[in-house]
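Recap from last week: sequence in, structure out.
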Amino acid sequence: MLRTRLYLGLLPLLLLFIGAGLAAMRVCQDLASTVETKVLSSYRLMIGCYELRETATQLANTLQFAQSSLNNLTPRTRSDYEAHRARFQKELMAQSALCAGTPRSQPLAAAGEAFDQLRSIGDDLFTHGPDASLNRYQQTEAALFTTLRSLEALAESDHQELKNEASRITGLARTSNRVVLVALVIGIGLSLLISALLARHLLKPIRALTTSARALGEGNLEQDVPVTSRDELGELALTFNTMAAKLRAYREATTAKVLRIQRTMEATLTSTPDPLFLVDHNGKPEVRNPAAETLFPNGLPQILSLRICHVLTSRAHYLPTGYDHVITIPHEREERHYLPRILSIGDTLTGHGGAALILQDVTKFRLLDDAKNNLVGTVSHELKTPLTSLRMAVYLLLEKHVGPLNPSQIDLLETARDDADRLLRILNDLLDLSRLESGASALNFRNIAPADLLAEMAREMKTIADAAQQTISIQLAPHLPQLHVDPDRLRHVFINLLANASKYSPPSTTITLYADRADQGYLRCGVRDQGPGIPSESIPHVFEKFYRVPSETRKGAGIGLTIAREIVIAHGGTISCQSSPGHGSDFYFLLPTVATGETPTPFPTTS
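Predicted structure tokens:
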């Protein structure tokens, strides 16, 4: 294992450090023992030697004083002599005990013999009496000189021994310095050697791993890391090789998947009957299917190029739903109608941007819709003439121009009149709806203030609301811009929404007619009531033609909201509804304003 190798590589260095430490401890211990034993002992002996000299000198002085006293020897002089003699002998015996068997014992014995001569003179003096002769005085001085000289030799011996011990300590210190220096040099060399070996052992596989990782980053997944050991580095190399193998397998699987997806896309594009284009961020076509190549062999027409540029700039989908956005293209001696749908595509990861253009062929639907509208318009027009004659006859009968009528006849005629009027209104609504859907009904746009428009609608519906015991409230946001609409056509939208709100709201309730700002340069207008509400499953269908809420029992044809939707769409807006059972309904639509003088972005024309 790598950890074991590191430990074994550092073990010699550790042992060297331990050995050097033990040697240093041994030297320090020896030095401490030498200082404690030799130096202190020598110091004590030197102090004792000085005491011997002092005692011998004092003893000699006592003898000289006694000799000069003649017959006046006092007991104090004798006691002083005996005290000095005892003190000298005690110290001499102590040092003899300490120096037994050492070179110092010889000079100490000589000092003892010299002191014996001085002591014999003193003993003779105090035994036979004082002798003031010159001979006795010279003997005393000679004995004292011999004693002091012996003690000087002893002190010189002690001093020489201290010098020898100092020399030994200095040599020991030098030897210790050499040993420590050699150990330090060996440790540094061993550290460098171990570091070089460990670096070579560790860096070689790491360099190989780095090279393989760099190659892997450059896309070369074939280069493996050589496994040279079974330690952690070997396990790392095995793991890296396993990862590279998995990446190779993943790349192969991904490549196969990409090829399969590419073939699938090509087959899908080829089999798609509608023309399809893929353009880059500059609007240049990159991919097109065979239907697109057949329809536009020389490139896209200008109207489609402009719409694609708008989508690329705004990054918003262009998804029209009305036939007013259909483009007609001559193809194979006939005209084909296509509804362009442009999708903004982009990838934040790769930075790719572009658009997809799909031309949905709505030729058959356009023809069917035209036929349906023509049929509805024709049938409504053909029914309107006899219905008008029938209504005129009923009105003439009710005016009693042809004779009197009994009450039963009057009731029947009034019922017929009301049904004829309702049928005429339905036929008129169908004709209006047919004209709106076919685009035959032109709009007269002009600018109008939202406050004026809502006030006019509330004034026109006041009579109906008062009859139903209801109140119409107007709510306007401050500083609203003007609307660019056809007020006459928009009147039908407001009247239809207000009439429905009055029809389905109970008495003593408030109908709110409001206008407020919306996003993207639009104004939100709506009617909010306090009626029973609409079930959530019916809200998506309320603007469909002839749709009636299943639980509704009030009369109606179900085309009023459809006409309102077509009028709002013709104005470039959208209409919607928010409602929940028991909480009333809010029918609102968005209309473009003229606040900025620009054409606002159209909302999706969905209900």
